[in-house]
Amino acid sequence: DLPPSGPCVLHFLGFVASVQSITRGELFPFGPSARDQLLEAGNDLTRRLQLDKPVLFYDGTFDSIFINTNGFVATAEPTGESTYLGNMPPKFGMIAALQGDLDTSDGVGKVFFRQDSSPDVLFRAAQYINGAFPEDDEVNPTNAVVITWVDVATHEPPSRGDGIDKKRNTFQLVIASLETASYAIVLYARDGMQFSSTPIQGRSAVMHTGFSKGLVQGFLFSSPGPYYRTSTDDEASIRALAEETNSGHRGIWVYEIGTSPYFTNVAPGEVTDLPSEATPQAPTERDDEETDARRTVYTNGQKAQDPPYETEGAQIEVHQIQYQPLHPDNPEVLVVLNQLAIPTTFSPCFSMFSVFSYKLGTCANNRNKCSQFADCKDHSSGYCCNCRPGFYGNGIQCVAEGKPQRMNGKVYGKVYVGDSASPVEFTSNDLHSYVVVNDGRSYVAISDIPNTIGPSLLPLSALGGVIGWAFALEQPGFRNGFSIIGGEFTRQAEVTFLPGNEKLTIRQEFKGIDEHDHLVVSTTLEGQVPEVPLGSTVKIGPYSEVYQYSNNLITSSSTRVYEVSLPDGSTATRTYQWRQTITFQSCQHGESLRDMKPTQMLSVDQVFVLYNPNNALIRFAMSNKIGDINGRKVLSQTQTRLSLLAYDNWLFSLSDIDECRENPQICGSHAICNNQPGTFRCECEDGYQFGNDGQTCVEVYRPVDACEEGTHNCDIPERAQCSYTGGSAYICSCLPGFIGDGRVCQDIDECQPGRCHQDAVCYNTQGSFTCQCRPGYNGDGFSCFPERTKTRCQNHRDSIQGATVSGPRGPRPPLGQFVPTCDENGGYKPTQCHGSTGYCWCVDRNGQEIHGTRIGPGIEHGGVSPPVGPTTRPDVNPLPQGTHLLFAQSGRIDHIPLEGYDMKKDGAKAVLHLPEKVIIGVAYDCVEKMVYWTEITSPSISKASIQGGEPTAVIRSDLDSPEGIAIDHLGRTMFWTDSVRDHIEVASLDGSQRRVIIDSDLVNPRAIITDPPNGNLYWADWNRDAPKIETSYMDGSNRRVLVKDDLGLPNGLTYDSQSSLLCWADAGTHKMECTHPGQGDRRMVMEGLQYPFGITSFGKNIYYTDWRRDAVVAVDRHSGKESDEFQPQKRTKIYGIATAYAQCPSGQNYCAVNNGGCIHLCLATPNGRSCKCPSNAVAVGCVERDSGY
Prior knowledge:
Layout: H1 14-19, E1 37-38, E2 46-57, E3 60-68, E4 72-74, E5 94-99, E6 102-103, E7 110-116, H2 119-132, E8 143-154, E9 169-178, E10 181-188, E11 197-200, E12 203-206, E13 208-212, E14 215-217, E15 222-224, E16 227-229, H3 235-239, E17 252-259, E18 267-268, H4 285-289, E19 296-299, E20 302-305, E21 322-323, E22 334-335, H5 363-366, E23 374-379, E24 382-387, E25 391-393, E26 398-400, E27 405-417, E28 424-436, E29 441-446, H6 465-470, E30 473-474, H7 481-485, E31 488-498, E32 502-513, E33 519-529, E34 537-540, E35 543-550, E36 553-565, E37 571-583, H8 591-594, E38 599-612, E39 617-627, H9 644-651, H10 659-662, E40 671-676, E41 679-684, E42 688-690, E43 697-699, H11 706-709, E44 720-726, E45 729-734, E46 738-740, E47 745-747, E48 760-765, E49 768-773, E50 777-779, E51 784-786, H12 792-802, E52 831-833, E53 840-842, E54 884-889, E55 892-899, E56 902-903, E57 909-913, E58 919-925, E59 930-935, E60 940-945, E61 952-955, E62 962-968, E63 973-978, E64 983-988, E65 995-998, E66 1005-1011, E67 1016-1021, E68 1028-1033, ...
Parallel strand pairs: 27-33, 30-39
Antiparallel strand pairs: 1-7, 2-3, 3-4, 4-5, 5-13, 6-8, 7-8, 8-9, 9-10, 10-17, 11-12, 13-16, 14-15, 17-18, 19-20, 21-22, 23-24, 25-26, 27-28, 28-29, 29-39, 31-32, 31-37, 32-33, 34-36, 35-36, 35-38, 36-37, 38-39, 40-41, 42-43, 44-45, 46-47, 48-49, 50-51, 52-53, 54-55, 54-78, 55-56, 55-57, ...
């Protein structure tokens, strides 16, 4: 036992591992099997990682970090590598694990990263930190970030070589944090450090390690902040990283890099000394004989021997492991007093003993952490949870006695079969298990197993063996795994196949019981197995395995024998050696550990293994019992009257005495006797359970579910909900739309301002509300628009058709009268024809004939029959009828049809292919069915018909970085922002009449939108120092700031003319918000957005593009929830997005007719229009007139 003075951390294999440098295999788990993300291949690439819990660095707190190819992590988006390579320290905060000019573009090198809060990773990080700072208080991190640079090479000019002979480095950075501090753990593998300098600008520069705060803002100017460098300009200092330490483990370095609320400087680990390396003595003849049976390791002069693998049927003598007290002149060592010591050859992940950590606090504050079937008990050092009678487990998780158990999980990893050069990969294969607890029978099935590996996995019945151990049939006086440690633990097993010496590692993380009462497990397989040919069968005989128990650690080892029947009829007997560790967290005073025996034996028989190649399914089945290590049954006197003859009969497989028949009352009242070979088992009747003495059956307290029986005092079901919470307790809660304590609920009047459209009436109902458009308006109440008034063309047409003359067949239109034809929007069709004479002519938008265009009957009017513009190209796909979303990706514009407000994702496709173009903004002209876009590779503004036609450049000159673009479909103008020129410009839709309307107090203008009927313009400036959203009239006058507080990166804007709402998406605050520009209100629609860029609206929905998700996301702005997501097949960043309306929105402005009477630019205002001159006013002889009418 541990001494009373407190917990003590023992490093059994740790002493050996400290003497030798770590290897790649001893790093924290990384790669696909660890669920890592992968940084894009290349040079000087960066990925932002949003953190679940912040990192403390120097005196700052950071919610995100930036991971870079060049061997470092930054606290702000790093500048280009030319600014810091060879020019340290950088201007930004940097944690340099091993910084240089690195490259992963050859496909060999990779950079993996993830956030990890799993117990094994946090436990291992805590061990390194506490070991590096032995005089400080013990810390327990709550979150970690693991970044691994694997086989990265130096960045060099392209050559004809294939890169096989390149030198490569592998190293790892773990940032472990708790609420008040963050630590950096840097691991340098002995077999992963091949170069210490990289070429920079024609010279060789030594790589950097250390911590830089970056620039610090002073009163007048910025200056470089602290830079704690951990290496020098000597290459020897880089080579020493894998050979020296400050943590007591060679190649592992620990630093305290940030504390709160006060911080002084980076603090390195304090243990720079390494244990002396013992010299092995010359082997004796006796040692030579036992070489194959055991291996010897040296731990600071203390010799420990691994046990030989047990043989079946032998009597096993077990001695206890004891701990030698700490002596001032002697490091704490583990003294092994037996021949069956805890194995010392496991992976370093499990080489350190896990020591009990008290559950601090009291039951009053932590009762909810216990199982609902457990009681909480306070102790002087903390609290413990204990399962109630009738249940078993560790108190945190308890299950009912006798209830069958299920386990679900996934299998990951890579396994080589035989001499195959490529592994079989497991990518989230399903694993299911079922256990009949009353007889210890377990069944395991794994799906999607290809026949290239299926037969070769048959010998590994132990894949499911741990579930058999967890719920093994208990012999009296002994306890199965779940009874002792519950359902949260980590198991790692190492399998060595003989005689080929193939090795396989099995790692399983048991994550407790989910909401379906199923045990959850994640399994990872890594290594090699000998090949078993397809069509073979495998037979596994009974075996036993001794489990050794100590605080938070369980170990076992054995030799397994199996027989393979090959397809040719021959058989082969094979073996493998098996070692495993199980680590877990426990409560020192918990009842589950009170009677725990130091050793128990798991006996497994009736083992069946089967692989079905037709459905790619592998199955394992076995019976499991836990009991005495020498096979003796320990039975209580009151439960068992087993005669010596019965015991001998059982041992020699002779007839069994049925104790239940001989003595029907042997189990007592309300109990059932169940005879078994050589013994019997007592089980309580339904409604009864064993009392505290474990023998007498007492009546089960059956709590009443008042919710189910209707005896609760909650309000009626139409207003409230009753929720059963266990025991006889329940909770009453009001349904949505009602308020109260659940016992009395009153209706909420949801008809608050802004719920419905401004032209709608809100009607409150019980628990909800309805919106109805006012008379004269159409819509669903959330969006209302005036009943459409007739256009000039429609009035003209209807006035003629309404005039009638009398005839023999009744009233009819007058003969010979010209009747105009109108398009779908009510405008005059460009070509008009007289129905009687056959003459045709062209008209302007006002229906006036264009001089010189009239032609006689039967003559084709040039350009009238085919649509205006070139024929459709193969890479231009016309859009079908209806409303669509248009969005931009690099090199293309795609569309998604809308059905109502829902995205028809199966109808999405590319509209325009524009190779090598980076398209930023997208806008749509609903009159001419044109899409307009901005692109920044060769800065320009272009357009194309969505009904088919060649892309046409509209503006190519005097542009630097055009980004946002908006269309006034009434005034026939377009507006755009230029983030380099820092201005807003307007022009006619053909690119003529250009004029800058806003050219001051702009830093990073991007999003811009128009409100044509009201003559307003809106734009966003994502200036990081002072972001803002502004508005003006369309002529640039009456400029004012709408929103400036609580903004980060307002990338996208949209205006819904039906609701008069201006909405924006912010990539800095990760929120979507809306306001009525004229009212000054502001409300949040949704938070938790990742990285929104473009945004548009249609009806009740807002649609935005997200750079992190590479998706178009639909949000219901009334409920504030996502309703759908579309990820295009091409997974790249999505930029601008616009709504392509089936019909133009209703409304007019003063520029809609005859260009407002202006000769050049007509720019609408709320109460009129301004006639403005283009920038080349002198050349065109223009005179301006301000707002008129």
